[in-house]
Specification:
Blueprint lengths: L1 E2 L8 E7 L5 H6 L7 E7 L6 E5 L2 E5 L1 H4 L2 E5 L3
Antiparallel strand pairs: 1-6, 2-3, 2-6, 3-4, 4-5
């Protein structure tokens, strides 16, 4: 299991869980719910923010937000 912040562009993975903190509700309101598939689209030149596709739309997350999301990589 990896954190969303550790994934490379083009990676498709499923949200497994979150660290228990005050960002949990905010992330869920943005469509980042356990079981949802995510594709990492781009990472900014200095690593922050990252662009992902989740629940059918593009979302930019700060690196500190992405570090709170644990992912399961897709088996291919």
């Amino acid at each position: 299991m990896k954190r969303l912040s550790e994934l490379e562009p083009g990676t498709v993975a499923k949200i497994h869980s979150f660290e228990k903190n005050d960002l949990f509700l905010k992330l869920m309101e943005m469509g980042c719910v356990p079981g949802e598939w995510v594709r990492v689209e781009q990472i900014a030149p200095f690593g922050d923010p990252i662009s992902i596709t989740v629940a059918g739309y593009n979302l930019s997350l700060r690196l500190d937000e992405a570090e709170n999301i644990f992912m399961e990589e897709e088996d291919r």
